[in-house]
């Protein structure tokens, strides 16, 4: 087993083509997820690759390199549509974890309780992948994560970035998270909301995503459609709008409890986003 730290993407892709390795960015999930007696052929640290630690904004796309940390996101000059993502960043572990852990690592870990996924879904994010043999491809985040700890990432492939279409300048957002304590906790459930309001305070665009209530975090299209044309205070979160969710009973909370919490989180996040 070896440790490799390339400085260029081409070098990294060449290394991945050799065998079964483990990519490290922040590395905060590497050892907690390790299995006794099992180890990869190599560990590859991508944090020295030029450009992967950069957040860039063009006319159409906001691009997050795959080594961008949560602290980088907190400090970035982004519009109000990214407030939910920033709120998420402030609640991912301790400050030390935020300084090391990466947005792309959170996505690739593919936990049902991955805090970064709901706000990214509400931003219509896509995942940028690259391999030496297959070249580059761009997938919607909803297609990238396929199940618990499962993604479409191939053995010789790496995530090089996340892309978000530049949101409307009037879009606002909010994030609600429930855990057994304030910090350093796995989410019981969480909700991200992005809204656009017109001059009459009516919702013209709504994106609502929920995590930790199904194998993969997901948008709630029926709820999104139902709020269009309404004022935030008039929105009703009906149980049928939560039909895509399949929460489980576990040590952190019962399924019925999660349903109740999500209804309240959606209401709160809508009101909070609208107030901005």
Number of H- or I-type helical stretches: 9
What do we call the CATH homologous superfamily of the domain at 172-275? CO dehydrogenase flavoprotein, C-terminal domain
Tally the beta strands. Answer: 14
Strand proportion, as a percent range, falls in 25-35%
Distance between the termini: 51 Å
Question: What structural class do the secondary elements suggest?
Answer: alpha+beta
Any idea what the CATH architecture of the domain at 172-275 is?
Answer: 2-Layer Sandwich
Task: List its traits.
alpha+beta, 4-stranded antiparallel β-sheet, 9 helices, 5-stranded antiparallel β-sheet
Overview of the molecule:
There is one protein chain. The protein is α+β, with helices and mostly antiparallel strands and 276 residues long. The chain has a domain at 172-275: CO dehydrogenase flavoprotein, C-terminal domain (Enolase-like, domain 1, 2-Layer Sandwich), CATH 3.30.390. Helices cover 26% and strands 26% of the residues.
What is the structure about, briefly put?
The chain is an alpha+beta fold. The protein contains nine helices and 14 strands.
Describe the secondary-structure layout.
Elements lengths: L1 E3 L4 H8 L4 E4 L17 E4 L9 E3 L3 E5 L4 H6 L7 H7 L5 H6 L2 H7 L7 H6 L3 E6 L3 E6 H4 E3 L2 E2 L5 E9 L6 E7 L10 E9 L5 E9 L6 E2 L1 H7 L27 H21 L1
């Amino acid at each position: 087993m070896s440790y490799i730290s390339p400085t260029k993407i081409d070098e990294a892709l060449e290394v991945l083509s050799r065998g079964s390795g483990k990519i490290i960015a922040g590395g905060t999930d590497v050892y907690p997820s390790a299995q006794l007696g099992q180890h990869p052929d190599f560990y590859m640290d991508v944090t020295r690759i030029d450009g992967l630690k950069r957040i860039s904004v063009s006319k159409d796309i906001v691009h997050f390199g795959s080594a961008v940390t949560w602290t980088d996101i907190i400090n970035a000059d982004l519009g109000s549509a990214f407030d939910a993502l920033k709120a998420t960043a402030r609640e991912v572990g301790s400050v030390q974890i935020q300084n090391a852990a990466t947005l792309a690592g959170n996505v690739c870990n593919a936990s049902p309780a991955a805090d970064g996924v709901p706000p990214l879904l509400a931003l219509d994010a896509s995942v940028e992948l690259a391999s030496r043999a297959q070249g580059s491809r761009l997938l919607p985040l909803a297609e990238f994560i396929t199940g618990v700890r499962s993604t479409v990432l191939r053995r010789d492939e790496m995530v090089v970035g996340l892309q978000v279409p530049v949101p409307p300048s009037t879009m606002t957002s909010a994030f609600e998270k429930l855990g057994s304590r304030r910090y350093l906790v796995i989410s019981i459930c969480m909700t991200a909301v992005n809204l656009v309001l017109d001059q009459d305070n009516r919702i013209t665009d709504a994106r609502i995503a929920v995590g930790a209530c199904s194998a993969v975090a997901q948008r709630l299209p029926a709820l999104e459609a139902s709020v269009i044309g309404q004022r935030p205070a008039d929105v009703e979160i009906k149980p049928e709008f939560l039909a895509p969710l399949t929460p489980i009973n576990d040590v952190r909370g019962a399924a019925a409890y999660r349903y109740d919490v999500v209804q309240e989180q959606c209401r709160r996040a809508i009101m909070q986003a609208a107030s901005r």
